[in-house]
Write a structure and sequence with these properties.
Elements (H helix, E strand, L loop, with lengths): L6 H23 L1 H18 L1 H4 L3 H23 L8 H4 L4 H22 L2 H11 L5 H8 L3 H23 L1
Helix pairs in contact: 1-2, 1-4, 2-4, 6-9, 7-9, 8-9
Length: 170
């Protein structure tokens, strides 16, 4: 058999061998990469000019294909890349619930810092109003200050809370 020399004959060779080469790669590397590797094998054959020079282009093509499989395996070893199947539960991106939980946790930490930084009386009045649900009048009577004083401390406490929340948003 004489070596083929024209572009038309390479086209014919490609049509004749592409399917078998695809199946060769599919058995070794899987369907996803088989087409790309088959194309690479034909490209290398053309680029090196081997199609016109070799006596048996089919044997050369499949030898190049085996070499591509070997190269791919070596590259995988060098990179330390293992092939793992995708697991929806393990590999899925974090859902919005997780993001919201993290943001809420950050917000609680910021509010806690603001709360602990409040003056003692302001913190006490804030807790009496927010946790015990006492009115300003009840708090004023219990502590022994005027209602305006309770209102002042509540404004200070709420201002610190607002600043803590605003800081968390940035």
């Amino acid at each position: 058999m004489s070596p083929p020399s024209s572009v038309a004959s390479f086209d014919e060779f490609y049509r004749r061998e592409n399917r078998q080469l695809f199946h060769f790669f599919r058995r070794r590397v899987g369907r996803e990469e088989a087409s790309d590797l088959a194309q690479e094998a034909f490209t290398r054959m053309l680029r090196t000019g081997a199609f016109e020079r070799v006596e048996n282009p089919r044997a050369y093509l499949f030898r190049a294909a085996r070499n591509l499989v070997i190269e791919r395996a070596r590259q995988g070893k060098r990179k330390g890349a293992g092939l793992f199947s995708f697991d929806d539960e393990r590999d899925a991106p974090a859902g919005p619930e997780q993001t919201l939980a993290m943001e809420a946790s950050d917000m609680r930490r910021g509010l806690r810092r603001a709360f602990l930084a409040m003056p003692r009386r302001t913190r006490r009045i804030f807790l009496m109003h927010r946790l015990r649900h006492q009115t300003y009048r009840e708090i004023a009577e219990e502590i022994g200050i005027r209602e305006q004083g309770v209102e002042y401390h509540m404004m200070r406490a709420l201002s610190r809370c607002r600043k803590a929340v605003a800081f968390q948003c940035w």
